[in-house]
Design a protein that fits this description.
The protein is α/β, with parallel strands linked by helices. It folds into 2 domains: 4-150 and 315-348, Alpha-Beta Complex (Quinone Oxidoreductase, Chain A, domain 1), CATH 3.90.180.10; 156-291, NAD(P)-binding Rossmann-like Domain (Rossmann fold, 3-Layer(aba) Sandwich), CATH 3.40.50. It has 12 helices and 19 strands. Strands 3, 4, 6, 7, 10, 11, 18 and 19 form an 8-stranded mixed sheet that branches. Strand 13 (194-199), helix 7 (202-210) and strand 14 form a beta-alpha-beta unit. Helix 5 packs across helix 6 and helix 5 packs across helix 11.
Length: 349
């Protein structure tokens, strides 16, 4: 496909983003071209927009940003099988090399040579995006665009929550940002026995409650959180802790509230090293600590598709705001709001 398109990204070092006209990407061997129908904003995109220390060390302008999206396939490159024009796809943002030892032993999502869409390669905040076919997930053509748009971030929650079963379990979710809210929906759909949602913002706690959390607790008082979880679990503690915030205090609270032999899933990214009581929190508890980076390719996607198809998993209530792509600055301003009334922000080209 020839011509130009509108795109948003980082065309110069510094805060903010720019709307530009760029050539439509040309597909090569093993690639497909997707018409972006819906995109959403991730915390990573906020870091890039704000041009923080991480972004300054990682992002190399000029770059079209964004990595969460869906849309129809409009062009199929040479060597691609299994996809045709018109297929509604969501995109896996982890681009694996397929050749390293990690990829070849079934762990493509943490590839040694991993590239991230919209971070290391041109992203989705545009009319069209080019992607290796290995990173496309074909959806039911009847799937609502809102659901297809957030399959990638929801996959984080599915992987984090269901890397081990949660049916009947007492689950403590620390951090009620968008992925924590997705995790609440996932755990409820998977039959968790009791879900404790923890955050410092009352509006986020209210959202978690509306999405299925049995009980909400204020993270400002870690002692009270641990006490309540122990009270409601017969003194044992939570079977599963899903740490979605990256806050050092929440990490420590989660370990303290975890029962012996329990599972601690680490997804939130701390901004600096975190000190924990390694002996008492992990060794003597016999805790299983599982780090989550993205989604399994493609075990997580099959689980997620099945849950959505069954009707038990619907992420749309987490989408609280929608903006045209050209109102990107306004969308970012909303996403960065501190009032806690923002879930997932969706962009529509």
């Amino acid at each position: 496909m020839k011509g130009t398109m509108k795109a948003i990204g980082k065309w110069k070092a510094g805060p903010g983003a720019q709307v530009v006209e760029v050539p439509i990407p040309q597909v090569g061997n093993g690639e497909i071209l997707v018409k972006v129908k819906g995109a959403s904003i991730c915390g990573t995109d906020v870091h890039i927009y704000e041009w923080d220390e991480w972004a300054q060390g990682r992002i190399k302008p000029p770059l079209v940003t964004g990595h969460e999206c869906c849309g129809p396939v409009v062009e199929v490159g040479p060597g691609v099988t299994g996809f045709a024009e018109g297929d509604l796809v969501s995109l896996e943002s982890h681009i694996p090399c397929g050749l390293c030892a990690v990829c070849r032993t079934g762990l493509q999502h943490i590839c040694t040579n991993l590239k991230i869409l919209g971070v290391d390669t041109a992203g989705v905040y545009a009319d069209y995006v080019k992607i290796p076919a290995i990173c496309a997930w074909k959806n039911d053509p009847a799937m609502p665009i809102e659901i297809a748009t957030v399959m990638e971030p929801m996959g984080n929650a599915v992987y984090a929550s269901l890397c081990e079963p949660v049916s009947g379990a007492a689950v403590l979710i620390t951090g009620c940002g968008p992925v924590g809210l997705f995790a609440t929906i996932v755990c409820r759909a998977a039959g968790a026995g009791r879900i404790f949602a923890v955050d410092i913002n009352p509006n986020r706690l209210e959202m978690a409650k509306s999405l299925g959390a049995h009980e909400t607790l204020n993270a400002k008082d870690g002692d009270a959180v641990v006490k309540r979880v122990l009270e409601m679990t017969g003194g044992d503690g939570a079977d599963v802790v899903l740490e979605m915030s990256g806050a050092p205090s929440a990490i420590r609270t989660g370990f303290r509230a975890l029962r012996k032999g329990g599972r601690f899933t680490a997804f939130g990214l701390p901004s600096k090293p975190v000190e924990i009581d390694f002996n008492n929190d992990i060794i003597f508890k016999g805790a299983r600590v599982i780090g989550i980076n993205g989604r399994e390719m493609f075990q997580t996607w099959y689980k997620m598709a099945g849950l959505v198809r069954s009707g038990t998993l619907d992420p749309r209530p987490v989408i609280t705001h929608k903006f045209p792509l050209v109102e990107f600055d306004k969308a970012m301003e909303t996403m960065r709001s501190k009032d806690g009334k923002v879930g997932k922000v969706m962009l529509i080209p």
